[in-house]
Amino acid sequence: IMAEKTLMTLLPPQMYLRPELGPDPPSMSLKIGTLNVKGLATPSKFTTSANLLKSYKDINIFTLQETNISSNNLSFTTKKWPFPSFWTPHVAILFNSHLFNVTNSFSTSSRNLIVDFEFHSVSYRLETVYIPPDRQRRSLFLSSWSPSVSENNFILTGDFNVNMHPQNRVSSVPPRGDSTAVHLSNILSSLVDTQT
Questions:
Q1: pLDDT at residue 13 is higher than 70
Q2: Other Cβ atoms within 10 Å of 158 Cβ, number
């Protein structure tokens, strides 16, 4: 028993969740980083951000929000990343190696992007979303958006621009009620219900 406890403290939690199967090989884990980049429209900001992302060799996929790339520059921007990448004016999904087999990509608006891919013979669907920061546009977006869930392993990332937990808020100004937080909570709750 003591050896088992020692092993469990030495390994990260995902390595001992399924003791009957043994630890997952490190190459099988999928690591996704998500970042609001606050605009990549200028060449210097794009280069600085891309160089920073490339330095994270252990991250397999990056999802970016608030990219602010004009529609005219999307094709050019896609070519500037050395691995497969997918862009809309507001979001991007960047693969950080050639180990992925991308089978489909689509968008239901300029504020979300969905990519289906295989990694080590496992199928995934990854969606990233950038929900507008102002309440009126956020409400309009949430009334027309729902996550594009599939039967594959579904992963949702993004910048939702809503504080779902007011107790975590740091401000001297009292919080105002925000119906979009409730709306988003309902969307995410239904997502959890469909996945169980």
A1: no
A2: 20
